[in-house]
Amino acid sequence: MSDNELGAFLRSRREALRPDDVGLPPGNRRRTPGLRRSELATLAGVSMEYLARLEQGRDQHPSRQVIGALAEALRLSPNDQHELRRLVKAARGIQLPAEQCTAAEPPSTEIRPTIRTLLNRLEPTPAVVVNRLTDVLAHTEGFARLMAPIGLLDRTPANLVHFALTDPRARTAYPDWEAIADARVASLGLSHRTDPHAGRLVDELTTLAATTFTDRANASPSPPARTGVESLRHPDAGELRLAFETLILPDTDNLQLTVYLPADESTSTRLDGLLRTGPIALPPLADDIATGSTGRFSGKHPRSTSRDPIDQ
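Below the sequence we write its predicted structure tokens.
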């Protein structure tokens, strides 16, 4: 276990933020992903030298005001804020009471009607919403056509980390499986150390995947990429190169929306052939909100989020 968990956590969350996430121009010649240390220091109202000491482990005793400023500047979710406070207390040698160690809220299992309608409007583009455990909460029909044939949606609830680490089909589907496995484990972050809900998933992955999971989970934390390109070997469409964009949804329990787009002309042609399904009836947004319909788990795949039995 690292002696500088607090510094590693702060750096991982800084590198997970893009400049446009906080209203800054992207700039040029960025040597590291995410925000520069100077940018975070400015946003949090602390000196860059002090932030460097925190990240490098030379100072592990930030004040309550600094903790709050960093949490706000880093756009930390409630669970990440809880983790930050735990790490600060641990660095000070303070043991958290048992009830605080299990204070994490259960992961979301539903989505707002407006998010459901957003997915409907994205059809037939492959798009998926997951919670902090990477459980699939809802997806477009396009995502089902893309991922159901490789086996991703067979489990209920489908889980991105579980599939990548425990299902042998993942190694066939992802030519660059090692990078995919690294990214999926990184998406769990450090929350499993104080989150009993994540802890149960970690226990299951440890049992089923052994060192394939634990070696990655115990490595120095690195933020999952929110944009990039993944290669997929599809049984029907062949070799695909998919550009992805991942967005943190506001006012949610760290729900994330990931949208997949063709990264080259060949993939565009193959993906169009796979997703060509004709017009899709889209329910009015006002009706969704009025009825209060939400996305829930379904064991039937593939399916469109607009055809969930809950909405009928």
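The beta strands are 127-130, 136-139, 227-234, 238-248, 256-262.
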